[in-house]
Amino acid sequence: MPYTYQDVEISWLGHAAFLLKHSGKLIYIDPYKIRSKGAADVILVTHEHFDHLSLDDLRKIVKRDTDVVAPESCGTQLKGLGAGIIKLVKPRDRVRVRGIDIETIPAYNLTKFRAPGIPYHPKEAGGVGYILNLNGVRIYHAGDTDFIPEMRELKVDVALIPVSGTYVMTAEEAAEAVNTFKPKIAIPMHYGSIVGSRKDAERFKELAEVEVVILERE
Fold first, then answer.
1. Of 101, 144, 165, 176, which is the most buried if we count CB atoms within 10 A?
2. Residue among 9, 189, 22, 161 nearest 101 (CA)
3. H/E run at residue 131
4. CATH of the domain at 60
């Protein structure tokens, strides 16, 4: 079942994928192995890895006039989409699409490495998280990231937070993050598909000092 915060309906589609419904608009974030819930008005992609930028999944939901927002590193792959209006962004950008104000927040690793000194998500790669302002409701999708200094300044209502470890924050690190910037609601993600399990989400809920909602995959 979706979770509704004020007038925003939030559905978890598995892994880091979400669908937000607001004022008749369908906003997808990082669609990967999803069941289409209808054609997208807006699609947000956090970075270029296959489990976040999936052309097969984008084609399920994109239409000619869909706004697709993604980091510059995704530009070459998105040329193959064949539809949509592509808007490439960098960390700390602000864009407005379909009447929605969107901020990009850096997303990167500090302690997760594929080899000594080589993080899975380097800061210089330009991966992002997003803050969407939906009629005054601020929703943050963190992307693939550790607990980074930039999070300390966040002021958001709902935080969609990775908890699986390996490539992103562990449940313990994610709890430390939300206990620092204190969203009103935190929703764990990035588990149950490639790495991590519901136990990570439950551990996060145990440790978080904010309200946590664990969604079932739709």
1. 144
2. 22
3. strand 128-134
4. 3.60.15.10
What are the DSSP calls for 200-213, one per residue?
Answer: HHHHHHHH-SSEE-
218 domain-assigned: no
Q: Mind listing the pLDDT tens digit for each residue in 137-179?
A: 999 999 999 999 999 999 999 999 999 988 899 999 999 999 9
* Three-class DSSP category at 72: helix
| Residue 169 belongs to a domain | yes
Give just the sign of the alpha carbon dihedral 179, 166, 116, 46.
Answer: negative
Residue for token digits 């997208």?
40
Closest CA to 14 of 130, 188, 157, 173: 188
Per the domain annotation, does 151 fall within a domain?
Answer: yes
Range of the domain at 174: 3-212
Q: Please give the structure tokens belonging to residue 66.
A: 């869909």
* Dihedrals phi, psi of 158, to nearest 5 degrees: -125, 130
Whether 83 shows a pLDDT value over 90: the answer reads no
Question: Domain total for the chain?
Answer: 1
Residue found under tokens 């998280």: 129
Per-residue model confidence as pLDDT tens digits over 120-130: 888 989 999 99
Give the count of alpha carbons within 13 A of 99, CB side only: 9
C-alpha 17 chain-centroid distance? 7
Q: Is residue 217 part of a domain?
A: no
Share of the chain above pLDDT 90, in %: 84
* Residue 135 buriedness (CB in 10 A; 0-12 / 13-18 / 19+): exposed
Scanning the structure block, which residue is given the tokens 């998105």?
Answer: 78
